[in-house]
């Protein structure tokens, strides 16, 4: 079983039993996870298939989620699809039975129907998350297949609404997802990377030009030079109201920690500084994570009401 350090930290944060969390992780990764051979996950830069996400906001306890890449060892397309389907079913039954239709729509619309195209995707083309702090789950799928010009069109068809045209012109869609605990609170997410010459200000997203976003990037990146692929942006909106084009969404920027290399002891003060700057309740337990647990991404979210959140994505280093 991979990710022992992640699950031990999750147990301390949530008060859950480590064995129970290990069972959940196994059910999300699928039976092929026990096979010999390397991981082929696209979730992390080193191929490992698990992340722990610690979500911080103002005045509330951390929200802890476990993210997994099902069937991340097998190349067999039928086994991939079977294990992904079983993992999604298991998480839905436990965490969010009311999300079945929304998840089915995402998979049917945003993944290729053609078996050969599905086989060309890295691993199963989908990632799964479960909320360890309460009800709720998430499902994300890769959009990096087929004609690149068709990716935004597929996403807009799935949403039933247009997204800002500057975003379509200047950003590359890389994945889509759905998060929530019921159909009433489900949120759609579209993840993108900047085009060759685009800046955040070019995307037609008002939140991208806020002082909060500039301050977050300043704290995390500073004067360092990073590649455009080091930042994954996303917009999120309530799925129930997504058909209304005038419904504004929130913004999140995830910075790859591998692309801004720092030791764990260097990252912790930056996380603390972000909590102070945005008035977030810190999770002091992360200072006790083991030596094989490291930062994968640091994400900053901002909604239309100006409420900030910080997502700390952790992974285990390979043995």
Give a short overview.
By secondary structure, the chain is an alpha+beta fold.
List key phrases describing it.
single chain, 10 strands, globular, 319 residues, alpha+beta
Total count of strands:
10
Distance between the termini: 11 Å
| Rg estimate, integer Å | 19 Å
Q: List SSEs in N-to-C order.
A: HHEEHHHEEHHEEHEEHEE
pLDDT < 50 stretches:
none
Helix count, DSSP H or I runs of 4 or more residues:
9
* Strand coverage percent: 15-25%
The percent range for helix content is: 25-40%
In round numbers, the mean pLDDT is 92
User: How would you sum up the major sheet?
Assistant: 10 strands, antiparallel, barrel
Strand order of the largest sheet: 1-2-3-4-5-6-7-8-9-10
Gross morphology: globular
Which structural class do the helices and strands define?
Answer: alpha+beta
Commentary on this structure:
Helices cover 31% and strands 24% of the residues. It is an alpha+beta fold. The chain has a 10-stranded antiparallel beta barrel, surrounded by 7 helices. A hairpin with a 6-residue loop joins β1 and β2. The longest helix is centred in the N-terminal third of the chain and has 19 residues. The radius of gyration is 19 Å and the shape is globular.
């Amino acid at each position: 079983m991979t990710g022992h350090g992640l699950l031990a930290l999750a147990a301390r944060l949530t008060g859950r039993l480590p064995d129970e969390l290990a069972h959940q992780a196994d059910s999300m990764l699928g039976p092929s996870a026990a096979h010999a051979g390397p991981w082929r996950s696209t979730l992390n830069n080193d191929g490992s298939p698990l992340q722990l996400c610690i979500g911080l906001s103002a005045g509330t306890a951390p929200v802890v989620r476990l993210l997994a890449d099902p069937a991340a060892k097998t190349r067999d397309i039928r086994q991939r699809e079977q294990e992904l389907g079983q993992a999604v079913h298991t998480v839905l039954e436990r965490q969010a039975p009311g999300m079945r239709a929304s998840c089915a729509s995402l998979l049917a619309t945003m993944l290729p129907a053609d078996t050969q195209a599905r086989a060309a995707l890295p691993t199963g083309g989908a990632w799964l998350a479960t909320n360890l702090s309460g009800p709720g789950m998430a499902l994300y799928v890769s959009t990096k297949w087929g004609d690149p010009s068709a990716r935004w069109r597929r996403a807009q068809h799935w949403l039933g609404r247009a997204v800002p045209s500057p975003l379509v012109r200047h950003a590359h869609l890389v994945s889509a997802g759905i998060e929530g605990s019921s159909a009433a609170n489900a949120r759609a997410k579209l993840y993108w990377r900047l085009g060759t010459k685009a800046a955040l200000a070019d995307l037609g997203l008002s939140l991208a030009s806020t002082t909060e976003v500039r301050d977050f990037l300043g704290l995390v990146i500073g004067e360092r030079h990073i590649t455009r692929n080091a930042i994954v942006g996303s917009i999120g909106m309530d799925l129930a109201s997504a058909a209304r084009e005038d419904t504004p969404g929130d913004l999140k920027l995830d910075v790859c920690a591998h692309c801004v290399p720092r030791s764990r002891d260097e990252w912790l003060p930056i996380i603390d500084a972000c909590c102070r700057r945005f008035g977030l309740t810190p999770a002091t337990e992360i200072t006790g994570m083991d030596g094989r647990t490291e930062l994968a991404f640091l994400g900053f979210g901002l909604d239309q009401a100006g409420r900030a959140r910080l997502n700390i994505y952790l992974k285990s280093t390979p043995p």
